[in-house]
Design a protein that fits this description.
The chain has 295 residues and is an alpha+beta fold. Helix 6 packs antiparallel against helix 7.
Length: 295
């Protein structure tokens, strides 16, 4: 998105679907990869040809690059600036069902700081340099010139959307777009939440009867964590499943006695991340494992 991008939105006020498509075409003309979204800001589901990421859209499969399927089936990887794709018959049903338009900030050399409530906006006004601002339903998008790694929950109600991510198009916004500052990059570089979200910390009741936890032996616990790391590292395939089952096993053994520390959990997340799992996938797997065990 250049600083003067002014996507016009609906050109035929009586037909919102046409409006979404025209908005996408305006974005594409400005060099901003666009795609349709379903209700709830959700991307369209995988097409049959691309199920199980057969096209190589997984973030860790960098050599494969973005999905080349003509349908908008992989969110950020399906975003395009090619008007022939946007207007192709393969995308027609998506535009008929579309509730909104999204764009891939990283593909346009941009970073969006997604501020999801008033408190987050207040923080940004104190901590970050001013730039182009777009009003959202609950907060604001601050858009900077420059791309970086995306990450969720870098602060309470603050997400970074850039590479391998998408953001809803809500208009060109106001203000002058400025270069991506070090303060935004540092949110991902230094925050434990980029690898280990705060909500992933295990908090469990003390042992019934006040007995001493048998896992507090450093050797016992460290050996278990090391074995879990190795299991993830050695996974030849089905990494999603392996990560979830490993998290489940660790929590089954150590989740109810209070032994696990942030450092232990960070080691597990780091092993998963090294295999190509995103911070969001790690968080989901941990959260799901906890839920399955009633933690």
């Amino acid at each position: 998105m250049t600083s003067d991008c002014k996507a016009r939105g609906p050109r035929t006020g009586d037909h919102p679907v046409e409006g979404h498509l025209w908005t996408a075409l305006d974005l594409a003309a400005a060099g901003v990869p666009a795609l349709p979204l379903r209700e709830g800001k959700l991307p369209f589901g995988n097409c049959r040809a691309c199920t199980k990421s057969a096209c190589g859209d997984r973030p860790h499969m960098k050599a494969a690059g973005p999905c080349q399927c003509p349908r908008p089936c992989h969110a950020w990887a399906a975003a395009t600036t090619d008007p022939r794709v946007l207007t192709s018959p393969a995308w027609a049903s998506a535009w008929r069902e579309a509730a909104a338009v999204a764009y891939h900030p990283g593909g346009a050399g941009l970073t969006v700081v997604d501020l999801d409530d008033a408190a987050a906006v207040a923080w940004a006004r104190e901590a970050l340099p001013a730039t182009r601002t777009v009003q959202t339903t609950r907060g604001e998008h601050w858009i900077y010139r420059g791309a970086m790694q995306s990450a969720n929950a870098v602060r309470p109600d603050v997400d970074i959307k850039s590479l391998m991510s998408y953001a809803r198009w809500l208009g060109p916004g106001t203000g002058t777009m400025t270069d991506l500052p070090g303060a935004v990059r540092a949110l991902v570089m230094k925050k434990p939440s980029a690898v280990l979200p705060a909500q992933s910390v295990v908090t469990v009741p003390a042992l019934a009867g006040g007995g001493e936890c048998r896992h507090r032996s450093p050797a016992y616990l460290d050996r278990g964590i090391a074995m879990a790391e190795q299991r993830i590292t050695d996974a030849p395939s089905a990494v999603h499943t392996t990560v979830y089952r490993t998290f489940l096993a660790v929590l089954s053994a150590h989740g109810r006695c209070g032994c696990l520390t942030d450092a232990h959990i960070a080691r597990l997340f780091a092993a998963a991340h090294a295999k190509g799992e995103s911070p969001r996938h790690c968080t989901d797997a941990w959260t799901n494992a906890r839920a399955a065990l009633g933690l």
